[in-house]
Amino acid sequence: MANKEALEDKMTPLERMRHSLAHVMAIAVKELYPETKVGIGPPIENGFYYDFDREDSFTQKDLQKIEKRMKRIIARNDAFERKEVLASEAIDMFKAQGEKYKVEIIERLVSEKGVDNVSLYYTGDFVDLCRGPHVASSKELGVFKLTRIAGAYWLGDEKREMLQRIYALAFETQAELEEHLKMLEEADKRDHRKLGKSLKLFTTDESIGAGLILYQPNGMILRRAIEQFEREEHIKRDYQEVLGPGILNTKVWKTSGHYQMGYPMYFFEIDRQEYGIKPMNCPAHLYLFKTEIRSYKDLPLRFFELGTVYRYEKSGVLHGLLRARTFTQDDAHIFCLPSQLKSEIIDVILFVQDVFKTFGFEKFEVELSTRPEKSIGDDETWDHATKSLEEALKELDVAYEINSGDGAFYGPKIDIKLRDALNRVWQCATIQCDFALPERFEVSYIDSNGKKCRPVMLHRAILGSLERFMGILIEHYAGAFPVWLAPVQVNILPIADRHHEYAQKLVRDLKRKGLRVHFDKRNEKIGFKLRESRENRVPYAWIVGDKEVSGDTVSIWQRGVGDRGALSSEEAVQEVLDAHLSKAIW
RNA sequence: GCCUGCGUAGCUCAGGGGCAGAGCACGUCAUUGGUAAUGACGAGGUCGCCGGUUCAAUUCCGGCCGUAGGCUCCA
Questions:
Q1: Which fold has domain A490-582?
Q2: How far is CA A157 from CA A108, A153, A161, in A?
Q3: Is there contact between A178 and strand B, defined as CB under 7 Å from any strand atom?
Q4: From the CB of residue A376, how many other CB atoms can be counted at a distance below 10 Å?
Q5: Handedness of CA A185, A186, A192, A194 (dihedral sign)
Q6: A331 catalytically annotated
Q7: ipTM of predicted complex
Q8: Which CATH number applies to A4-187: 3.30.980.10, 3.40.640.10, 1.10.287.1700, 2.60.40.10?
Q9: What is the second-level CATH architecture of the domain A194-244+281-477?
Q10: CB of residue A206 closer than 7 A to nucleic acid strand B?
Q11: pLDDT digits over A61-72, tens only?
């Protein structure tokens, strides 16, 4: 076993505290429910968990009892004592206690790592196998709160037994804990599923089926705004938009390999031919490439598709817009010469950054994933591609981390993640080199010597899935979208019926400029209409009454600003138009 | 797919073996108003679906579907 000092170095004091609290939780559970067998209990971001095996399920009430007992245990102020023993001794001891999971861990350590000794930690009467380190005594433990119970497979293996995991938050001070709870509350308020419902963006229905999204008119406006922007940006950058069919003969999925790999897709039969609903857009693009003899002069060739795909996601992973069974990718495939690889990658990275920034995301994280053990292609090809990716990143002076061996079996890749307003990380963009598909579909171009050659293929997505990105946008802005994305940009609120005619003129003015306006004609008081406009996060409310009609003005209420007073109607229209066209973020 | 919880009006939710409840939204009427909720009246339900127990099930039990949080997956 690695030496103690090295491990202590690796664990921060906070992690050590959380880790020790996990032990305290195990002690509490064993004291309250002695028949329970313990699994493992590591520190995690914001807290810790411990896995238990017990006949009865833990309930929310049990959590309170356990939490109380933990506090009592901490008050006892037991020391955490470390003791090193022979592995065989430890096995005997845990066997005698019936702690089969601990026995399994030690046996693994012995057989896989060849350890002789293991370390045990004694806390009062409780002994746990653990490499440590721990706090010296329970006095040093901070504040914590048990949060929830969840199922978790032993060793993360879905074929093994399902244990009960108790999650807890833990911090050094009460203030930090409360701050974190506040953050969770804020995240809950921003939940795209809740906002999606209240802002009438999208819905789902159990009669329709799990993981299937229905766009409401407001959601469709948001989606179209994103799509239109993407089309324009792609065309600017010499991509050609294409569209493949939603179903392709299964033979194609056999050629691509998805069929043999058991890719989660849907199949059905027409005229005794089996078809598969597309879970990816690439095969169609490969066939489109093959419709002509391509010259090296045609490369790079960039096919772009807003491609709607269907995937048989497991029921348990579905999550609003973030994980649905049908979604649309902003997908593109770039066919190029190996020598063009680097500059293509640079262009894609710049493209991604541009797009992210336009949507209001300033912080990104980049990961480069290299060749995994199981992979196809020769060393030279892999080296060249990986180097191209890496050089592109270096040339752009982009900070990145390397995920060694985490690439796809068919090629290395770059993933670009963004951070949202709550500093959460979301995986969106991906740039993947693919050596497999050009080969499998036998695509080629003619080089300057008249020879047939295999082009390199890049798969890339910027937003990833439009649904998922919309979910991220909703949470990032908490539903208060910038003008260019807002389903309703201006709400016109007349004070009384006699102002409707003037209001209608304003509606026309705005619509003529292509702006999205809602005219609230309801027989309600202005306070009520304004309140609702605010709740719907509409960026502008224009209030019109006698004063405005006579002066050809509007009284502007602006989101994030409040009552701005009167402005001439002409200037007001121009202001909204500017905010719309400039895609200003506020 | 697995574990645990949940499913009552369009929405948010209360209730609980014996006539199904509230607020908001919706409809009608009155009110024509100046920056976060005008008032009155009305309509709205196979209590997710199927089966079982019971004189009686929305309520208890089982299965299924959906959903929430995790796990596994999504590399």
A1: Rossmann fold (3.40.50)
A2: 15, 6, 8
A3: no
A4: 15
A5: positive
A6: yes
A7: 0.94
A8: 3.30.980.10
A9: 2-Layer Sandwich (3.30)
A10: yes
A11: 899 999 999 999
